[in-house]
Fold these 2 entries.
Entry 1:
Amino acid sequence: MLPRPFGGRSSTSFVLKRNSLAPAPERKKTTTWKEFIRTYRGLLFGTDFFTAEGWTLHGLVTFYVLFFIRVSNREIHLAGVTLHPNNEGWMAQIARNVTIREGSAF
């Protein structure tokens, strides 16, 4: 009979204690946010929308701008601009564009 699957901190702790095993010293260490950001800043990006209003032939319109910022050097990447951010196709295309660029994160 196979053992029942388990997971989680309390289950793991229970199994270690039941088998008289001490936890690894590294398990008790924690990484601060400052250390985490410093370690992975070359891989981290932030993202957000902002709006910009502009006059067109149809009057005043609101443009929605999606951008990314690279944490390591604060470089801005314009991902897209649209009048209709609720369009699922637009967001899906932006996600594809961001994730499939070859040779770099952007």
Note: The first strand starts at residue 45 and ends at 56.
Entry 2:
Amino acid sequence: MFVAVGVGVTVTLNANIAEATTEGWNVLDPADVDRLKATKICTGCRLYGADLRSEDLAGADLVGADLTGANLTGAIWPDYRICNEGSIGECR
């Protein structure tokens, strides 16, 4: 793909590079949600946008988990806090 940037300047973009760097990024993996609920061990899991409202996550191992956009309202956090209304992506 060619993009004209300015007078006499053209930049070549490689669409395959863009696809390769974003593939699998910020994607919910339903198997990770199932594993979290079954074992409370989910290191490095992709929980992007997961509905974890009112889930008991007390003592869970979430090191490196991507919780971006996950709804945690009412969830019991690994440190036994209860996440407040509007806890999206982090327990508040």
Note: The chain has a mean pLDDT of 82.
